[in-house]
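Please check the following.

. . .
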Amino acid sequence: MKTFIFHLKIIIVSFLLIPVKSNLNANTIPDFSELASELIPSVVSVSVMITRDVSPNRPVPPQFPPGSPFEDFFKDFFERRGIPGNPPPRQRRNETAAGSGFIIDKEGYIVTNNHVIANSSSITVILHDGTSLQAKLIGADKKTDLAILKVETDIKLKPVEWGNSDDAKVGNWALAIGNPFGLATTVTLGIVSAKARDINAGPFDDFIQTDAPINRGNSGGPLFNLKGKVIGVNTAIYSPSGGSVGIGFAIPSSLAEGIIDQLIDYGKTVRGWLGVRIQTVTPDLAESLGLNKAYGALVATTIPDSPAEKAGIKAGDIILKFNGQEVTEMRKLPRLVAEAKVNKNSELVIWRNEKMITKKVLIDELKEDQMAKKKNDSKKKVVQEGEIKELGIKLVNLNDEIRIRQNIPEDIYGLLILNVEQNSEAERKGIRPGDIIQEINQVPVNKISELKDVVKNSSNRKGVLLLVNRQGSIIFIALKVKGKN
Protein backbone atom coordinates (compact mmCIF):
# COMPACT_ATOMS: atom_id res chain seq x y z
CA MET A 1 0.00 0.00 0.00
CA LYS A 2 2.86 2.39 0.83
CA THR A 3 4.49 1.64 -2.52
CA PHE A 4 1.22 2.44 -4.35
CA ILE A 5 0.94 5.79 -2.60
CA PHE A 6 4.55 6.60 -3.42
CA HIS A 7 4.09 5.85 -7.14
CA LEU A 8 0.81 7.76 -7.16
CA LYS A 9 2.60 10.84 -5.85
CA ILE A 10 5.20 10.52 -8.61
CA ILE A 11 2.46 10.30 -11.25
CA ILE A 12 0.68 13.38 -9.85
CA VAL A 13 3.89 15.38 -9.73
CA SER A 14 4.75 14.28 -13.26
CA PHE A 15 1.44 15.60 -14.54
CA LEU A 16 1.99 18.89 -12.73
CA LEU A 17 5.35 19.27 -14.47
CA ILE A 18 3.97 18.71 -17.97
CA PRO A 19 4.13 22.01 -19.88
CA VAL A 20 0.68 23.47 -20.62
CA LYS A 21 0.20 25.76 -23.56
CA SER A 22 -1.06 29.12 -22.35
CA ASN A 23 -3.47 31.37 -24.19
CA LEU A 24 -1.65 34.40 -22.76
CA ASN A 25 1.16 36.12 -24.61
CA ALA A 26 3.05 39.37 -24.41
CA ASN A 27 0.39 41.13 -26.47
CA THR A 28 -2.54 40.16 -24.21
CA ILE A 29 -0.98 40.89 -20.80
CA PRO A 30 -1.80 44.53 -19.88
CA ASP A 31 1.13 46.93 -19.71
CA PHE A 32 0.61 49.78 -17.23
CA SER A 33 3.97 51.49 -17.69
CA GLU A 34 2.70 54.32 -19.91
CA LEU A 35 -0.27 54.97 -17.66
CA ALA A 36 1.91 55.02 -14.54
CA SER A 37 4.44 57.34 -16.20
CA GLU A 38 1.64 59.75 -17.12
CA LEU A 39 0.09 59.79 -13.63
CA ILE A 40 3.13 59.85 -11.34
CA PRO A 41 3.79 63.64 -11.75
CA SER A 42 0.30 64.35 -10.37
CA VAL A 43 0.87 62.49 -7.10
CA VAL A 44 2.68 64.14 -4.19
CA SER A 45 4.03 63.25 -0.77
CA VAL A 46 2.60 65.16 2.18
CA SER A 47 4.89 65.74 5.17
CA VAL A 48 3.52 67.37 8.30
CA MET A 49 5.01 68.69 11.52
CA ILE A 50 3.01 68.01 14.68
CA THR A 51 3.90 69.76 17.96
CA ARG A 52 3.00 67.89 21.15
CA ASP A 53 3.27 68.76 24.83
CA VAL A 54 5.42 66.27 26.75
CA SER A 55 6.53 66.03 30.35
CA PRO A 56 10.29 66.10 30.88
CA ASN A 57 11.73 62.81 32.01
CA ARG A 58 13.22 63.85 35.33
CA PRO A 59 12.40 63.27 38.98
CA VAL A 60 10.01 65.62 40.73
CA PRO A 61 10.70 66.55 44.38
CA PRO A 62 8.13 65.15 46.79
CA GLN A 63 5.61 67.59 48.22
CA PHE A 64 5.20 67.97 51.99
CA PRO A 65 2.85 69.99 54.16
CA PRO A 66 4.16 73.48 55.02
CA GLY A 67 6.47 73.38 58.02
CA SER A 68 7.32 69.69 57.63
CA PRO A 69 10.87 68.85 58.88
CA PHE A 70 11.46 66.91 55.66
CA GLU A 71 10.76 69.92 53.43
CA ASP A 72 14.16 71.64 53.82
CA PHE A 73 16.04 68.33 53.73
CA PHE A 74 14.63 67.22 50.35
CA LYS A 75 14.88 70.75 48.96
CA ASP A 76 18.61 70.81 49.68
CA PHE A 77 18.98 67.24 48.36
CA PHE A 78 17.44 68.02 44.95
CA GLU A 79 19.06 71.47 44.57
CA ARG A 80 22.53 70.01 45.18
CA ARG A 81 21.89 67.80 42.15
CA GLY A 82 20.71 70.67 40.01
CA ILE A 83 17.01 69.78 40.24
CA PRO A 84 14.76 72.75 41.12
CA GLY A 85 12.21 72.36 43.83
CA ASN A 86 9.24 73.38 41.71
CA PRO A 87 7.59 70.88 39.32
CA PRO A 88 9.30 71.07 35.90
CA PRO A 89 7.43 72.91 33.13
CA ARG A 90 5.94 70.91 30.28
CA GLN A 91 8.04 70.81 27.13
CA ARG A 92 6.98 70.84 23.47
CA ARG A 93 8.27 68.25 21.04
CA ASN A 94 8.03 68.25 17.26
CA GLU A 95 7.06 65.06 15.43
CA THR A 96 6.76 64.36 11.72
CA ALA A 97 4.21 62.28 9.85
CA ALA A 98 3.72 61.55 6.18
CA GLY A 99 0.97 60.70 3.73
CA SER A 100 0.06 61.16 0.11
CA GLY A 101 -2.00 63.51 -2.03
CA PHE A 102 -2.78 64.39 -5.64
CA ILE A 103 -3.05 67.58 -7.67
CA ILE A 104 -6.51 68.44 -9.00
CA ASP A 105 -5.94 71.96 -10.30
CA LYS A 106 -3.18 73.94 -12.02
CA GLU A 107 -3.70 76.62 -9.38
CA GLY A 108 -2.15 74.27 -6.80
CA TYR A 109 -5.08 72.54 -5.07
CA ILE A 110 -4.13 69.17 -3.61
CA VAL A 111 -6.41 66.51 -2.13
CA THR A 112 -5.37 64.41 0.87
CA ASN A 113 -6.89 62.83 3.99
CA ASN A 114 -7.94 64.82 7.04
CA HIS A 115 -6.15 62.37 9.32
CA VAL A 116 -2.87 63.03 7.46
CA ILE A 117 -2.86 66.75 8.27
CA ALA A 118 -4.85 66.81 11.53
CA ASN A 119 -3.22 68.80 14.38
CA SER A 120 -0.30 69.81 12.14
CA SER A 121 1.68 72.99 12.73
CA SER A 122 3.17 73.00 9.22
CA ILE A 123 2.52 71.10 5.99
CA THR A 124 5.04 70.41 3.23
CA VAL A 125 4.16 68.98 -0.17
CA ILE A 126 6.92 67.16 -2.04
CA LEU A 127 6.51 66.80 -5.81
CA HIS A 128 7.58 63.71 -7.73
CA ASP A 129 10.90 65.39 -8.68
CA GLY A 130 11.74 66.11 -5.03
CA THR A 131 10.72 69.79 -5.01
CA SER A 132 9.39 70.83 -1.58
CA LEU A 133 6.61 73.40 -1.28
CA GLN A 134 4.90 74.85 1.77
CA ALA A 135 1.19 74.13 1.71
CA LYS A 136 -1.77 75.94 3.22
CA LEU A 137 -4.77 74.07 4.60
CA ILE A 138 -7.90 75.35 2.81
CA GLY A 139 -10.44 73.12 4.54
CA ALA A 140 -10.99 69.68 6.05
CA ASP A 141 -13.91 67.40 6.82
CA LYS A 142 -13.61 64.87 9.63
CA LYS A 143 -16.76 62.96 8.72
CA THR A 144 -15.44 61.90 5.31
CA ASP A 145 -11.72 62.17 6.21
CA LEU A 146 -10.97 64.58 3.35
CA ALA A 147 -8.84 67.71 3.22
CA ILE A 148 -7.77 70.20 0.55
CA LEU A 149 -4.38 71.95 0.49
CA LYS A 150 -2.99 74.71 -1.72
CA VAL A 151 0.56 75.48 -2.81
CA GLU A 152 1.90 78.61 -4.48
CA THR A 153 4.52 77.91 -7.15
CA ASP A 154 5.68 78.91 -10.62
CA ILE A 155 6.22 75.26 -11.44
CA LYS A 156 3.80 73.94 -14.03
CA LEU A 157 1.67 71.44 -12.15
CA LYS A 158 -0.03 68.48 -13.79
CA PRO A 159 -3.53 67.88 -12.39
CA VAL A 160 -5.59 64.71 -12.69
CA GLU A 161 -9.29 64.44 -13.40
CA TRP A 162 -12.06 62.97 -11.28
CA GLY A 163 -13.69 59.84 -12.61
CA ASN A 164 -17.13 58.45 -11.81
CA SER A 165 -16.78 55.80 -9.13
CA ASP A 166 -20.39 54.73 -9.73
CA ASP A 167 -19.27 53.38 -13.11
CA ALA A 168 -16.53 51.24 -11.55
CA LYS A 169 -17.40 47.55 -11.43
CA VAL A 170 -16.15 44.83 -9.14
CA GLY A 171 -13.28 43.16 -10.98
CA ASN A 172 -12.11 46.30 -12.82
CA TRP A 173 -8.41 47.10 -12.70
CA ALA A 174 -7.36 49.73 -10.15
CA LEU A 175 -4.01 51.54 -9.86
CA ALA A 176 -2.83 53.11 -6.59
CA ILE A 177 0.03 55.60 -6.38
CA GLY A 178 1.38 57.00 -3.14
CA ASN A 179 4.10 57.30 -0.53
CA PRO A 180 4.01 54.05 1.53
CA PHE A 181 6.59 53.98 4.33
CA GLY A 182 8.24 57.05 2.76
CA LEU A 183 8.84 55.31 -0.58
CA ALA A 184 7.64 58.07 -2.88
CA THR A 185 5.76 57.47 -6.16
CA THR A 186 5.15 53.81 -5.44
CA VAL A 187 2.74 52.27 -7.97
CA THR A 188 0.64 49.23 -7.06
CA LEU A 189 -1.93 47.33 -9.07
CA GLY A 190 -5.08 45.45 -8.16
CA ILE A 191 -8.79 45.29 -8.82
CA VAL A 192 -11.94 46.76 -7.35
CA SER A 193 -12.75 44.04 -4.82
CA ALA A 194 -16.09 45.42 -3.59
CA LYS A 195 -18.15 48.60 -3.43
CA ALA A 196 -20.27 50.39 -0.83
CA ARG A 197 -18.32 48.98 2.10
CA ASP A 198 -19.31 50.19 5.59
CA ILE A 199 -16.32 49.97 7.94
CA ASN A 200 -17.82 52.10 10.74
CA ALA A 201 -15.41 54.95 10.02
CA GLY A 202 -18.14 57.59 9.83
CA PRO A 203 -21.78 58.34 9.04
CA PHE A 204 -21.20 58.41 5.28
CA ASP A 205 -19.26 55.17 4.81
CA ASP A 206 -19.46 54.01 1.19
CA PHE A 207 -15.94 52.78 0.53
CA ILE A 208 -14.45 51.14 -2.53
CA GLN A 209 -12.52 48.04 -1.45
CA THR A 210 -9.41 47.18 -3.44
CA ASP A 211 -6.61 44.63 -3.30
CA ALA A 212 -4.10 47.04 -4.86
CA PRO A 213 -1.48 47.03 -2.06
CA ILE A 214 -2.01 50.07 0.18
CA ASN A 215 0.19 50.66 3.22
CA ARG A 216 0.89 53.36 5.78
CA GLY A 217 1.76 56.51 3.88
CA ASN A 218 -0.66 55.75 1.04
CA SER A 219 -3.38 57.67 2.89
CA GLY A 220 -4.66 60.55 0.80
CA GLY A 221 -3.31 59.14 -2.43
CA PRO A 222 -5.41 58.43 -5.52
CA LEU A 223 -6.97 55.22 -6.79
CA PHE A 224 -7.13 55.34 -10.60
CA ASN A 225 -9.09 53.50 -13.24
CA LEU A 226 -7.46 52.50 -16.53
CA LYS A 227 -8.50 55.81 -18.09
CA GLY A 228 -6.21 57.57 -15.61
CA LYS A 229 -9.08 59.17 -13.73
CA VAL A 230 -9.42 59.24 -9.94
CA ILE A 231 -12.21 56.94 -8.73
CA GLY A 232 -11.18 56.98 -5.07
CA VAL A 233 -9.05 58.52 -2.32
CA ASN A 234 -7.11 55.84 -0.44
CA THR A 235 -7.82 56.23 3.25
CA ALA A 236 -7.74 53.00 5.26
CA ILE A 237 -6.53 49.42 5.32
CA TYR A 238 -7.51 46.27 7.15
CA SER A 239 -4.30 44.85 8.54
CA PRO A 240 -3.71 42.76 11.67
CA SER A 241 0.04 43.02 11.00
CA GLY A 242 0.25 46.70 10.02
CA GLY A 243 1.11 45.93 6.39
CA SER A 244 -1.02 45.31 3.32
CA VAL A 245 -2.99 42.07 3.32
CA GLY A 246 -4.90 42.95 0.18
CA ILE A 247 -7.79 44.79 1.82
CA GLY A 248 -7.71 48.54 1.34
CA PHE A 249 -10.46 51.16 1.28
CA ALA A 250 -10.89 54.32 -0.77
CA ILE A 251 -13.42 57.14 -0.50
CA PRO A 252 -15.38 57.00 -3.78
CA SER A 253 -14.96 59.95 -6.12
CA SER A 254 -18.74 60.37 -6.33
CA LEU A 255 -18.64 61.42 -2.67
CA ALA A 256 -15.21 63.04 -2.52
CA GLU A 257 -15.57 65.41 -5.49
CA GLY A 258 -18.57 67.25 -4.04
CA ILE A 259 -16.96 67.53 -0.60
CA ILE A 260 -13.73 68.89 -2.08
CA ASP A 261 -15.64 71.47 -4.14
CA GLN A 262 -17.38 72.69 -0.96
CA LEU A 263 -14.10 72.88 0.96
CA ILE A 264 -12.58 74.98 -1.82
CA ASP A 265 -15.61 77.29 -2.06
CA TYR A 266 -16.48 77.66 1.63
CA GLY A 267 -13.61 76.19 3.63
CA LYS A 268 -16.16 73.79 5.16
CA THR A 269 -18.87 71.37 4.14
CA VAL A 270 -22.50 72.39 3.75
CA ARG A 271 -24.67 69.33 4.30
CA GLY A 272 -28.38 68.83 4.15
CA TRP A 273 -30.38 68.00 7.27
CA LEU A 274 -33.71 66.18 7.37
CA GLY A 275 -34.12 65.64 11.13
CA VAL A 276 -35.09 61.99 11.53
CA ARG A 277 -33.75 59.03 13.46
CA ILE A 278 -33.90 55.95 11.31
CA GLN A 279 -33.42 52.20 11.54
CA THR A 280 -33.09 49.24 9.19
CA VAL A 281 -36.18 47.76 7.61
CA THR A 282 -36.02 44.03 8.40
CA PRO A 283 -38.16 41.42 6.60
CA ASP A 284 -40.35 41.17 9.72
CA LEU A 285 -40.87 44.93 9.83
CA ALA A 286 -41.62 45.05 6.11
CA GLU A 287 -44.23 42.32 6.48
CA SER A 288 -45.81 44.04 9.48
CA LEU A 289 -46.18 47.26 7.48
CA GLY A 290 -47.44 45.55 4.34
CA LEU A 291 -44.30 46.25 2.29
CA ASN A 292 -43.48 43.61 -0.32
CA LYS A 293 -39.72 43.68 0.33
CA ALA A 294 -37.31 44.92 2.99
CA TYR A 295 -35.78 48.20 1.81
CA GLY A 296 -35.83 51.88 2.64
CA ALA A 297 -35.23 53.65 5.95
CA LEU A 298 -37.73 53.33 8.78
CA VAL A 299 -38.36 56.56 10.68
CA ALA A 300 -38.07 55.89 14.41
CA THR A 301 -38.59 59.52 15.49
CA THR A 302 -38.65 62.99 13.98
CA ILE A 303 -36.81 65.82 15.69
CA PRO A 304 -39.04 68.72 16.80
CA ASP A 305 -39.03 71.74 14.44
CA SER A 306 -36.99 69.76 11.90
CA PRO A 307 -37.67 69.77 8.14
CA ALA A 308 -39.11 66.26 8.49
CA GLU A 309 -41.61 67.22 11.19
CA LYS A 310 -42.66 70.36 9.30
CA ALA A 311 -43.27 68.25 6.19
CA GLY A 312 -45.47 65.82 8.10
CA ILE A 313 -43.08 62.86 8.26
CA LYS A 314 -44.08 60.57 11.13
CA ALA A 315 -42.58 57.74 13.15
CA GLY A 316 -43.33 54.48 11.35
CA ASP A 317 -43.01 55.98 7.86
CA ILE A 318 -40.57 54.21 5.58
CA ILE A 319 -38.60 56.50 3.27
CA LEU A 320 -38.36 54.60 -0.03
CA LYS A 321 -37.00 57.28 -2.36
CA PHE A 322 -35.15 60.57 -1.95
CA ASN A 323 -35.05 62.94 -4.93
CA GLY A 324 -35.81 60.08 -7.29
CA GLN A 325 -33.11 57.74 -5.94
CA GLU A 326 -34.23 54.52 -4.31
CA VAL A 327 -33.14 54.05 -0.72
CA THR A 328 -31.98 50.47 -1.15
CA GLU A 329 -30.81 50.29 2.46
CA MET A 330 -31.02 52.47 5.55
CA ARG A 331 -27.45 53.82 5.50
CA LYS A 332 -27.89 55.20 2.00
CA LEU A 333 -30.36 57.86 3.19
CA PRO A 334 -27.91 59.97 5.30
CA ARG A 335 -25.61 60.35 2.31
CA LEU A 336 -28.45 61.31 -0.05
CA VAL A 337 -29.70 63.90 2.45
CA ALA A 338 -26.20 65.26 3.09
CA GLU A 339 -25.67 65.78 -0.64
CA ALA A 340 -29.05 67.51 -1.13
CA LYS A 341 -29.15 71.24 -1.79
CA VAL A 342 -29.77 73.28 1.34
CA ASN A 343 -32.83 75.56 1.48
CA LYS A 344 -34.26 73.74 -1.55
CA ASN A 345 -37.23 71.38 -1.72
CA SER A 346 -36.47 67.67 -1.94
CA GLU A 347 -38.99 65.01 -2.86
CA LEU A 348 -39.55 62.01 -0.63
CA VAL A 349 -41.57 58.90 -1.41
CA ILE A 350 -42.70 57.28 1.83
CA TRP A 351 -44.66 54.15 2.74
CA ARG A 352 -47.52 54.79 5.13
CA ASN A 353 -50.66 52.75 5.82
CA GLU A 354 -49.71 50.30 3.06
CA LYS A 355 -49.50 52.88 0.28
CA MET A 356 -46.93 55.23 -1.22
CA ILE A 357 -47.13 58.95 -0.47
CA THR A 358 -45.04 61.74 -1.98
CA LYS A 359 -43.84 64.57 0.28
CA LYS A 360 -41.96 67.80 -0.39
CA VAL A 361 -39.37 68.67 2.25
CA LEU A 362 -37.41 71.92 2.56
CA ILE A 363 -33.93 70.69 3.46
CA ASP A 364 -32.10 72.66 6.15
CA GLU A 365 -28.35 72.93 6.76
CA LEU A 366 -26.82 70.40 9.12
CA LYS A 367 -25.07 72.20 11.97
CA GLU A 368 -22.84 70.64 14.57
CA ASP A 369 -24.73 72.19 17.46
CA GLN A 370 -28.11 70.84 16.39
CA MET A 371 -29.48 68.79 19.24
CA ALA A 372 -32.55 66.62 19.33
CA LYS A 373 -35.22 68.11 21.55
CA LYS A 374 -37.59 65.91 23.46
CA LYS A 375 -41.17 66.19 22.48
CA ASN A 376 -43.70 66.86 25.23
CA ASP A 377 -46.28 64.19 24.55
CA SER A 378 -49.43 63.45 26.49
CA LYS A 379 -48.95 62.38 30.09
CA LYS A 380 -51.02 59.47 31.33
CA LYS A 381 -51.02 58.46 34.95
CA VAL A 382 -53.76 55.82 35.15
CA VAL A 383 -52.68 52.92 37.37
CA GLN A 384 -53.34 49.57 35.70
CA GLU A 385 -51.51 46.33 35.08
CA GLY A 386 -52.39 43.74 32.49
CA GLU A 387 -51.13 40.78 30.48
CA ILE A 388 -51.23 40.55 26.69
CA LYS A 389 -51.15 36.78 26.19
CA GLU A 390 -51.13 37.11 22.40
CA LEU A 391 -47.74 38.87 22.63
CA GLY A 392 -46.36 37.17 25.73
CA ILE A 393 -45.83 40.36 27.75
CA LYS A 394 -47.08 41.92 30.97
CA LEU A 395 -47.45 45.71 31.17
CA VAL A 396 -48.31 48.55 33.49
CA ASN A 397 -49.60 52.07 32.85
CA LEU A 398 -47.19 54.84 33.83
CA ASN A 399 -47.86 56.89 36.98
CA ASP A 400 -45.83 59.24 39.18
CA GLU A 401 -44.60 56.48 41.48
CA ILE A 402 -43.40 54.31 38.60
CA ARG A 403 -41.73 57.27 36.91
CA ILE A 404 -39.79 58.11 40.07
CA ARG A 405 -38.84 54.49 40.74
CA GLN A 406 -37.80 53.76 37.15
CA ASN A 407 -36.37 57.26 36.46
CA ILE A 408 -38.74 57.81 33.52
CA PRO A 409 -39.04 61.45 32.38
CA GLU A 410 -42.48 63.03 32.45
CA ASP A 411 -42.51 63.62 28.69
CA ILE A 412 -42.23 59.89 27.95
CA TYR A 413 -45.59 58.23 27.37
CA GLY A 414 -46.60 54.60 26.81
CA LEU A 415 -46.77 51.29 28.67
CA LEU A 416 -43.94 49.88 30.80
CA ILE A 417 -43.12 46.19 30.25
CA LEU A 418 -42.92 44.32 33.57
CA ASN A 419 -42.36 40.79 32.35
CA VAL A 420 -41.66 38.87 29.12
CA GLU A 421 -42.80 35.28 28.72
CA GLN A 422 -39.96 32.81 28.49
CA ASN A 423 -39.31 31.36 24.99
CA SER A 424 -41.90 33.71 23.53
CA GLU A 425 -41.59 35.62 20.26
CA ALA A 426 -41.12 38.78 22.31
CA GLU A 427 -38.17 37.30 24.20
CA ARG A 428 -36.57 36.04 20.98
CA LYS A 429 -36.88 39.50 19.43
CA GLY A 430 -35.06 41.05 22.38
CA ILE A 431 -37.93 42.73 24.23
CA ARG A 432 -37.18 42.94 27.93
CA PRO A 433 -38.60 44.33 31.17
CA GLY A 434 -38.08 48.08 31.41
CA ASP A 435 -38.88 48.71 27.76
CA ILE A 436 -41.71 51.15 27.10
CA ILE A 437 -44.19 50.45 24.30
CA GLN A 438 -45.23 53.80 22.86
CA GLU A 439 -47.04 52.71 19.70
CA ILE A 440 -48.56 49.59 18.18
CA ASN A 441 -49.20 49.50 14.44
CA GLN A 442 -48.34 53.22 14.42
CA VAL A 443 -51.12 53.99 16.94
CA PRO A 444 -49.98 55.75 20.17
CA VAL A 445 -50.95 53.84 23.33
CA ASN A 446 -51.18 55.06 26.91
CA LYS A 447 -53.58 52.48 28.32
CA ILE A 448 -53.37 48.69 28.28
CA SER A 449 -56.93 48.60 26.99
CA GLU A 450 -55.86 50.64 23.95
CA LEU A 451 -53.10 48.14 23.16
CA LYS A 452 -55.51 45.20 23.59
CA ASP A 453 -57.95 46.79 21.18
CA VAL A 454 -55.31 47.17 18.49
CA VAL A 455 -54.16 43.55 18.92
CA LYS A 456 -57.77 42.37 18.73
CA ASN A 457 -58.49 44.42 15.61
CA SER A 458 -55.36 43.26 13.76
CA SER A 459 -57.16 40.18 12.50
CA ASN A 460 -55.99 40.77 8.92
CA ARG A 461 -52.32 40.77 9.96
CA LYS A 462 -50.01 37.99 11.04
CA GLY A 463 -48.24 40.31 13.45
CA VAL A 464 -48.04 43.75 14.99
CA LEU A 465 -45.43 46.50 14.90
CA LEU A 466 -44.31 47.95 18.22
CA LEU A 467 -42.53 51.26 18.75
CA VAL A 468 -40.31 50.67 21.79
CA ASN A 469 -38.47 53.24 23.89
CA ARG A 470 -35.44 51.68 25.57
CA GLN A 471 -33.72 54.19 27.84
CA GLY A 472 -34.16 56.94 25.28
CA SER A 473 -33.37 54.83 22.20
CA ILE A 474 -36.33 54.38 19.86
CA ILE A 475 -36.65 51.09 17.96
CA PHE A 476 -39.34 49.28 15.99
CA ILE A 477 -39.94 45.58 16.69
CA ALA A 478 -42.30 43.33 14.74
CA LEU A 479 -44.02 40.54 16.72
CA LYS A 480 -46.14 37.67 15.51
CA VAL A 481 -49.45 37.33 17.30
CA LYS A 482 -50.07 33.95 18.93
CA GLY A 483 -52.65 31.88 17.13
CA LYS A 484 -52.05 33.56 13.73
CA ASN A 485 -50.06 31.82 11.03
